[in-house]
Structures are given as C-alpha cells and as structure tokens.
C-alpha cells in the first residue's frame, strides 16, 4: 500500500478512536508537505473540523500526538501550521521500503484483479496511409492500455478497420481508371501509400470534373453530385453491398495491399492489437439494431423511409441512423461494434481513442446505446485528443500534404543519428547496436513528446525540440537511465549485501519519496486515461536523480553503508524509469 493510503487509514482510525467519528479514508486529503514547512506528508484538516467540532489547530495537535503514539515505525514527529498537520516519516520506513523493492523488477506493477477493460485505438480507414494524427492516437492507445494493465486490469487492445464505404470505393475507382494494372510491387511502393495515392488521384480528377461542369453552367452543388467519377464511386458502393464478384475481388486485393503497409508501420512504431474488427463484418449488425430500435420506439421513420433518433431533449440534434436508400451511416456501424465488443469480451469499460472532432459522435453513440438499453452503454468512454500540427503549419489530407507517419518516423531516426554522433559517446558501438540505438532514441523522442501533454490539448510537434538531450524529452530520460546503468555496472560484482545506512540525507530522501509514488501515479494515469501523468513522473524522477547524483557520489560515498544505500537508490531509480518508459512504449538503452 502506498504511504499516502497508509496515512489516510491511520488518520481515519485516529479520528474514530479520538472523536468517535467515522470518516472514509478516501475522504481525507493527504498531500506532499510544502517545501517551506517541516514534514513529508500533510493532512488537511479544514474539511474535517465541522464533523470533529474542534478548531483545526486543536484537532491537529490531538491527532498528531495520537498518530505518533500509535505508529512509531511510521511517524517520527509532527507540527501543525494553520490547519495543516505536517507529518515527518521516519527514515527507517523509507529504508525498509527501499530494501523491499530495490531488486524487484515488477516494482509498481499490480497483479490482475480479474476485471476487463477494452482499449480501441488506431482504427484506420483503408484508403490512405497513417499520418501524424494516427501516431498520437496509436501512442495514446497503446500506452493507456499498458498503464491500465499495470494498474491491475486485464486489457484487450483492439482496432476497428474501416475497410468498407465510399472512401475505399474512391481509391478503387481511381485505380481502375489510372493504374493500368500497377501493383505496389510493380511500383516499388508500400501498399498503403500506393492505395493512398489513388485516393488523391480520385480527388484531383473529381475536382477537375466539377470545374468542367461548372464552366458548362452547372451549379457547384449539382456539379458535386453529377461528376461522373463521383457517381461511379457511389455505384461501386452499391455493387459492393450487393456482393458483385469483381468489385469484391478488387476490394479484397486493394485492402490486402493496405494491410501489408500498415503492418510494417505498426511493427516499426510498436503498435499491436489483441483483436482486430473489420467494419465490413460489423456494419450489418448495426442494421439489425436499427430494426430493434424502431420496434422499441427509440428510433422513428420519416416519410421518405429514413430512420432517425431525436436527441433534442438531451440537448443534441436529430440524428440519422439509416439513410432512405437503406444504407447505414457511421453511427449505425458503431452501435453494432459496441454490441459485438461487449458480447465477445464483457468488458466493464470500453475506451475509444478518437480525435476530438468526433466528440459529438461519441456522445451520440453512448446516448443511443443507453436508450436502446444495451449493457455495453455505460462502459463507453471517449479518450478524446486534440490535433497535432508541425511548426510549419497544419496538416491537410485532401491536398495530399499530410504529415506522413512513415516519413516522420524515418526523419526522427535520422535526427537521432545526427545528434548522437554529435555527442560522440558511441565510438565503440557496432553498426547493429548503433542502428538499434538510433531507433530507440528517434522513436522515443517522438513518443515521449506526443505523450507528455494532456491528451485533450492541441499540440505542435517539434522534431528538433523533442530530441533535445537536456529538455523535457524522452532522450533526456533515456540518457539518465543509461547514466545510472553505467554507475551500476561498476559494482556489478560486489552486490548490495552490506548493511545500508540507517539515516537519509535530504536528496536521498527526495529520491526515495519520489520512487514510492510510482504506483499511485500509475493508478492515477489509469483512472484518468492520461499517459502524460507517467511521462511527467519519469521526467521528474530523472531530474531528482540527477540532483542527487550531482551532490552525492556513489563510488566515493562517505561510508560503505552510504554506498550501499545509494546503490539501492540508483538501482530502483533505473528500474522505475525503465518500467515507466515501457508503459509509454519507450525503450531505455543500457548505454548511449
Ligand atoms: N476510422 C475512423 C476515422 O478515421 C475512426 C474510427 C474510430 N472508432 C470508432 N469506433 N468509431 O475517422
């Protein structure tokens, strides 16, 4: 149990014993003591005084005395300042904590509690390759899943591939028109890029046709509907739904190309899934649910045959769930998917990592599922995130000027090579080791920078800044890890068997206090679906270690027992950084 939880429980018990008042420990506020006061943790008394019928100061003194008497192992002294009870924790408590954990490779990680959580992320469309926004999505999803798992849940990582619909028909039509039978192989291209290019070609041709029609006197609105290439794509979708063999054939072929491309990117960025859903397999279930909704009177049919749900009473709009031609819309597919997910896995929480432009969609989805009385409804959570841009400006997809994920990853790896060579500390590395190191640093920089901010916030990704070895970056933390490992390597033979010092200096204590918070940080990040909490934590931990190490030598410690204590501190710090970074999807080098 974390020291904060222990203090809360001890305080609740003290209040019960002294004042005969029962308070749930979770309702007691315990925070780190402000640096200007003496103490490690502080109980905030204001919220309690009403129930205790005491002034905060009087209650503080009584509770402080009682706690000190009850647990001499934990508390060494206390003081009360303006309604805050500041508690000093004994050095021996921290030293025992260190002893119990310094060689524990799963420090911070909880055992399974048997409850299930599903995290859906990435969920690409099969008409174009992944871009910078997908990278933020993939990193957030993967990391949130890892963090929730570390906090004790069984996690199912999933992805819904939007493999059917008008978007892929557009790429297919353009391929038929312009490719002359070319394949990714014949073109020497990654399959997702190859298919994406035809999506761009579709749009170029579509624009041209619209202009021609406008020049010939058609209105813009009419031209958009009448352009032959657009009508061909619509027809193709109808043919696809009807199962026309040559359309299905082409669809399968082009999707296979795309999947091969995606697989390569996922492999490179370290994304993986336990279960992949395909929209082509879930959208029909959504259609059935529309019938059910009509029967239950949750949906209404208009005269033209289209089906709607009226959400005005909930402060939203009327929303279409089935078009008049009987085709389903995005939300219909998602209702079907929600049911599928729940039937297969019965997760108590189902998290969707999707950009904030779909906030409305996700609100509607949850609401419709609730109104349909689906058991999956209440567990639906939208992990919404803001757009990422480059310092050079926005990313736009129609014009084909998106920030491509593969290109960006390659660029990061080459910047990392450049920076590492500049630093000149890798002269004895083999070519193989260097390659791995550049990958680790380049991808680490990218992931850390995208994860260190609150997911909800829009952000600008700055490649140069992200790789700064002295900044709030992945490489800074990676470098600190390598540095600690190099200290530890010098002692690998001698072990840690000697008795350790029984008192702590200020900077030693700062470090052990920070280490002790790791589990609580993981829990908080898991509950809030926010990996930035872990990123900020590992960064601060690395800084605290560096301050400690600047002042205190390990090799030339004042005494043998100080040396042992510091070795344990260093080892647990390296381990904690490694685990924290792993939860963010980053590797940490042994040397760099
Ligand atoms: N493929 C969709 C898009 O690119 C995202 C799907 C998100 N997941 C979901 N269940 N709606 O916009």
Salient structural properties:
592 residues, alpha/beta, Gyrase A, domain 2, Rossmann fold, Isoleucyl-tRNA Synthetase, Domain 1, 5-stranded parallel beta sheet, 14 strands, globular, binds arginine
- CATH architecture group name of the largest domain: 3-Layer(aba) Sandwich
Shape estimate: globular
Strand order of the largest sheet: 7-6-5-11-12
Which ligands appear in the coordinates? arginine
Q: What amount of the residues lies in strands? A: 5-15%
In CATH terms, the superfamily of the largest domain is HUPs
**Overall residue-averaged pLDDT value:** 94
End-to-end Cα distance: 35 Å
- Put simply, the count of helices is 22
| Poorly predicted spans | none
User: How many domains?
Assistant: 3
- Class by SSE composition: alpha/beta
What is the CATH fold-level name of the largest domain? Rossmann fold
How would you characterize the overall build of this protein?
The chain has 592 residues and is α/β, with parallel strands linked by helices. It folds into three domains: 87 residues, Gyrase A, domain 2 (2-Layer Sandwich); 269 residues, 3-Layer(aba) Sandwich (Rossmann fold), CATH 3.40.50; 179 residues, Isoleucyl-tRNA Synthetase, Domain 1. Helices cover 55% and strands 11% of the residues. The protein has 22 helices and 14 strands. The strands form four sheets. The chain has a five-stranded parallel β-sheet with strand order 7-6-5-11-12, with helices on both faces. It is globular. The two termini are 35 Å apart. The model has no long low-confidence stretch (mean pLDDT 94). It binds arginine. The site of arginine has 9 residues, from helix 13 and strand 11.
């Amino acid at each position: 149990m974390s020291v904060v939880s222990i203090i809360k429980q001890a305080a609740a018990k003290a209040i019960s014993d002294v004042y005969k008042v029962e308070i749930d420990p979770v309702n007691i506020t315990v925070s780190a003591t402000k640096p200007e006061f003496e103490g490690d943790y502080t109980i905030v008394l204001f919220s309690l005084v009403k129930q205790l019928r005491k002034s905060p100061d009087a209650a503080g003194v009584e509770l402080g005395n009682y706690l000190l008497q009850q647990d001499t192992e934990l508390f060494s002294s206390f003081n009360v300042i303006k309604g805050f009870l500041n508690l000093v924790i004994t050095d021996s408590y921290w030293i025992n904590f260190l002893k119990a954990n310094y060689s524990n490779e799963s420090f911070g990680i909880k055992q399974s509690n048997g409850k299930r959580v599903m995290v859906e992320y990435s969920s690409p469309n099969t008409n174009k390759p992944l871009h910078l926004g997908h990278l933020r999505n993939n990193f957030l999803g993967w990391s949130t899943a890892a963090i929730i798992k570390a906090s004790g849940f069984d996690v199912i990582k999933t992805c819904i591939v939007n493999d059917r619909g008008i978007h892929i028909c557009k790429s297919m039509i353009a391929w038929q028109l312009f490719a002359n039978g070319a394949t990714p192989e014949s073109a020497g291209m990654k399959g997702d890029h190859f298919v994406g290019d035809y999506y761009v070609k579709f749009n170029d041709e579509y624009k041209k046709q619209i202009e021609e029609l406008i020049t010939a006197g058609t209105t813009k609105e009419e031209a958009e509907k009448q352009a032959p290439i657009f009508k061909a794509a619509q027809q193709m979708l109808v043919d696809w739904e009807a199962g026309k063999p040559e359309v299905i054939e082409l669809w399968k072929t082009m999707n296979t190309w795309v999947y091969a491309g995606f697989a390569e990117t996922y492999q490179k960025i370290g994304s993986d899934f336990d279960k992949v859903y395909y929209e082509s397999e879930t959208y029909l279930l959504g259609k059935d649910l529309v019938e059910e909704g009509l029967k239950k009177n949750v949906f209404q049919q208009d005269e033209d045959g289209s089906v709607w749900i009226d959400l005005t009473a909930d402060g939203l709009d009327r929303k279409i769930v089935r078009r008049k031609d009987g085709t389903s819309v995005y939300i219909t597919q998602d209702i079907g998917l929600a049911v599928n997910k729940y039937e297969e896995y019965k997760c108590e929480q189902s998290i969707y990592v999707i950009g904030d432009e779909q906030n409305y969609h996700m609100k509607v989805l949850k609401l419709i599922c609730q109104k349909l009385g689906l058991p999956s409804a209440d567990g639906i959570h939208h992990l919404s995130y803001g757009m990422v841009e480059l310092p050079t400006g926005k990313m736009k997809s129609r014009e084909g000027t998106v920030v491509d994920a593969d290109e960006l990853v390659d660029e990061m790896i080459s910047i990392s090579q450049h920076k590492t060579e500049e630093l000149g500390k890798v002269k004895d590395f083999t070519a193989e080791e260097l390659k791995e190191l550049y990958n680790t640093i380049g991808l680490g920089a990218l992931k850390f920078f995208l994860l260190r901010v609150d997911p909800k916030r829009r952000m600008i990704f700055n490649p140069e800044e992200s790789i700064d070895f002295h900044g709030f970056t992945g490489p800074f933390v990676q470098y600190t890890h390598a540095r600690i490992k190099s200290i530890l390597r010098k002692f690998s033979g001698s072990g840690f068997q000697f008795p350790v010092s029984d008192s702590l200096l200020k900077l030693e204590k700062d470090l052990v206090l920070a280490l002790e918070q790791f589990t609580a940080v993981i829990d908080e990040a898991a509950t809030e679906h926010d990996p930035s909490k872990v990123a900020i934590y590992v960064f601060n931990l690395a800084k605290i270690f560096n301050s400690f190490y600047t002042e205190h030598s390990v090799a030339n410690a004042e005494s043998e027992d100080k040396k042992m204590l510091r070795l344990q501190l260093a080892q647990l710090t390296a381990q904690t950084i490694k685990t924290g970074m792993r939860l963010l999807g980053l590797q940490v080098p042994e040397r760099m």
